[in-house]
Design a protein that fits this description.
The chain is of the alpha+beta class. The chain has three helices and four strands, in the order αβαββαβ.
């Protein structure tokens, strides 16, 4: 199996996440949900550039923001938050995550940091 650079979220973790959502919410996790995805980098302009590429793929840029520093001498860290209404299974989300890990590596972004999910607001 090919190693995905930077991959830290496993299929097993996603399966557990889906089970917890089914157990703890009344969301229809099997249907359309609002999925948010996060990338980090120390250079604002690079995140602006990749946000444009992702928007061309149908994602909506929610924001790019500077994270708070825990130490004064820490390097600045910017976060890109994108979102898209999609339907996922743990397996399809694992494949999407793999795409984003590869995308981050290809575009020299510090990291793809994962996702969040919520119901679609109508």
């Amino acid at each position: 199996m090919n190693e995905i650079p930077g991959k830290s979220i496993t299929l097993e973790q996603l399966q557990e996440m889906f089970e917890n959502i089914k157990k703890d919410t009344d969301w229809n996790i099997s249907g359309d949900m609002l999925w948010g995805y996060f990338f980090t980098h120390n250079e604002l302009q690079l995140l602006e550039n990749v946000a444009e590429l992702l928007e061309k793929q149908g994602y909506k840029k929610v924001s790019i923001y500077l994270s708070d520093k825990e130490e004064a001498d820490e390097q600045e860290q910017f976060w890109l938050h994108i979102e898209k209404i999609e339907t996922h299974t743990p397996e399809s989300l694992d494949a999407r995550n793999d795409e984003f890990y590869i995308f981050a590596n290809k575009h020299n972004i510090d990291s793809y940091d994962g996702m969040d999910v919520g119901p679609v607001e109508h």
